[in-house]
Each structure stands twice: as C-alpha cells, then as structure tokens.
Design brief:
eight-stranded mixed sheet, alpha/beta, Rossmann fold, 325 residues
Length: 325
C-alpha cells in the first residue's frame, strides 16, 4: 500500500502529556508514528482511554503534540498558528461521535452544512440552499432536508449531515471519531457503506477511530492497535483476524462476538484491569494482563518494529524478522 498510494499525512514520534494532580503527568500518547494515504482508511482501535481520540485531535490540529512532528505533504503542521492554521483547517475535517452536540439546534441543516464555506468566503449566502441540497443528496438524504432543523431528524440522518458538512470543503483527509458507535447496528451498516462509497468516488484519506474490532477491520485498509497511549501493532485490515501477533490484539479478537463466529469456541475476556495512565509500569504497558509476559517485558518497553511488509509490532516475543521467541 505504501508504495502505490500518495502519502497525505505522517505522524512521527508524537507524544502528548497533560498535567494532573500531585505534580504528575498523564501521558495520553507516547511515541506514536502512523501514516495516512490517499484513498485509504487507517483505523485506530483500542479500549477507552487508550489515546486514540487524543491522537486524532492532534491530526486535525485541535491539540498540539508536546514532542514529535505531524507532516502534511511533508510540512510540519503541529506548530501552525493564526491565519496559516485557519487556512490549513480546510484540508483536514472531522466527524464527531454525537452530531446532536456538534450542531447548533437553532441552525437549519443548510446553515450547518454551508457554515464552513461561508467562513472561508467560498460561496455567497444566496447559494446556501442549492449547495446544501447537492451535498445532502451526496450523502443519500433528500434535498429538502436543507430546510429542516437537526432535532427533527434521526441519529443516522444527523450523522449523514455531519458527513456532508465535512465534505463541503473538499478535504484530503477526514477523521471519524467513533462516528457510528451511537447508532443502531442496521443504521451503522448503511453509514459504513456510505463512507466506503464516498471514499471511492473522491479518493479521500480516512482516519477511523473505533473500539469495535470487528467494525474497524471491515472498514480499514490498515489498522493500528493502541493500548495506554502506545501503538501495539499495525497491520492490514484484512489480516487482523488471521495474521495478528500481539497478545493484546489477539485478546481483542477473542473477545469479539459475531454471528459468523464459531459458537463452540468460548468468548474470552481480557483478564485484570489496565494500570492507571498516571502510573504506567516500566517495560511493556500490557505486561500485567499478558499471558506470555517475560522478565524482559517488565524491564524494557518493546520498540515498534517491522516484521513483515505493512506489519509492525511492539512485542518482545518477536525478533527483527518476525520470528517468535
């Protein structure tokens, strides 16, 4: 994939910390390096609090990293300010988890969709309704929804409006932050199908945040598995179920309930609790929950290394060539 597709954005060794009580620091993301390619989806999956949303907020310039770089077409955007930052925001957009909170209840749908275009003076006010109808139809909603208010629409319809609003600036990258988790399963399926269709038509790069392993692997070309702020494994989406190697990724796969699963095989849960991000242990962050923890895991944090093409892992069980120890 990396050889045939244009690299849109690359995060290099990104770390984000927040001050906490008692003069402590909470490390939300630690040494994260990931890439986004044109026309492809990078899915980030992990338990709540793993840092996936914090990372994506840095990608869309809502947060600044404390360390590392975020390169958009080779230019570091992590320190942009003022007019430069405002102009850059047109190129990367975000769709939030709950559109009811992302929209003003006093604005009509056409105002919600066209607000970004008006902010950048790309259309006149007289063009709002026509433009809104065009993008509503693009996300498979009737054009006359332009005159509605968000409260008169279902959750799935509001999320389609959120997608339309993200599309109007014709961005190169769209980040979806748990954009389907609040929807019914049947509605979730239609939204995912819409996202796939739009990506093929417009050749947009996607970042997809999710805690549902089954959903993220079905939608993503590349999947990054995060745990307590660190990347545990990165591999192609179609190989997640059959080719994952990290004990944490395997544990997440074993915990998935699916109608096509083997019901003779028990569903396994991940034993014990994750440590506090305020008190991370030395060594591998997954050590206290890993059934294959070794002495080196308690002393030394494993580096993320490539073991196969498009497959990286941070685990002491595997050497440079992917051989198991």
């Amino acid at each position: 994939m990396s050889e045939t597709r244009e690299l849109i954005l690359e995060a290099k060794h990104v770390t984000k910390r927040y001050p906490a009580s008692g003069d402590r620091m909470l490390t939300a993301c630690q040494d994260v390096s990931l890439k986004f390619y044109k026309g492809k989806t990078l899915g980030i999956v992990g338990e709540s609090g793993c840092g996936k949303s914090t990372f994506m907020r840095m990608v869309v310039s809502l947060e600044q990293p404390d360390e590392g770089e975020i390169l958009f077409h080779g230019r570091d955007i992590s320190r942009l300010k003022g007019r430069e930052l405002r102009q850059h925001r047109q190129k990367i957009q975000m769709v939030f988890q709950d559109p009811a909170e992302a929209f003003s209840p006093k604005m009509k749908v056409m105002d919600i969709i066209c607000e970004p275009l008006l902010n950048f003076k790309r259309i006149r006010k007289s063009e709002k309704e026509a433009v809104a109808r065009k993008y509503l139809e693009m996300v498979e909603l009737p054009g006359d929804f332009a005159l509605r208010y968000p409260h008169s629409m279902s959750g799935g319809q509001r999320q389609r409006v959120g997608i339309a609003r993200a599309l109007v600036l014709e961005p190169e990258l769209i980040v979806y932050d748990e954009a389907t988790s609040a929807l019914d399963v049947s509605v979730q399926k239609t939204i995912v199908e819409l996202l796939v269709k739009l990506q093929k038509e417009k050749d947009i790069a996607y970042g997809f945040i999710c805690h549902d392993m089954a959903l993220v692997q079905s939608l993503s070309h590349q999947v990054a598995v995060m745990y307590l702020g660190s990347i545990m494994e990165v591999l192609p989406g179609e190989k997640v179920a059959s080719g994952c190697r990290h004990p944490y990724t395997k544990a997440m796969i074993d915990a998935v309930f699916d109608l096509r699963m083997d019901f003779d095989k028990p569903i396994k849960s991940i034993e014990s609790e994750a440590p506090s991000p305020l008190d991370l242990p030395a060594g591998c962050p997954f050590q206290n929950r890993c059934p294959r923890c070794m002495e080196i895991c308690r002393r030394e944090k494993p580096a993320l290394r490539q073991i196969e093409e498009d497959h990286q892992i941070a685990c002491h069980l595997y050497g440079q060539q992917g051989e198991q120890r």
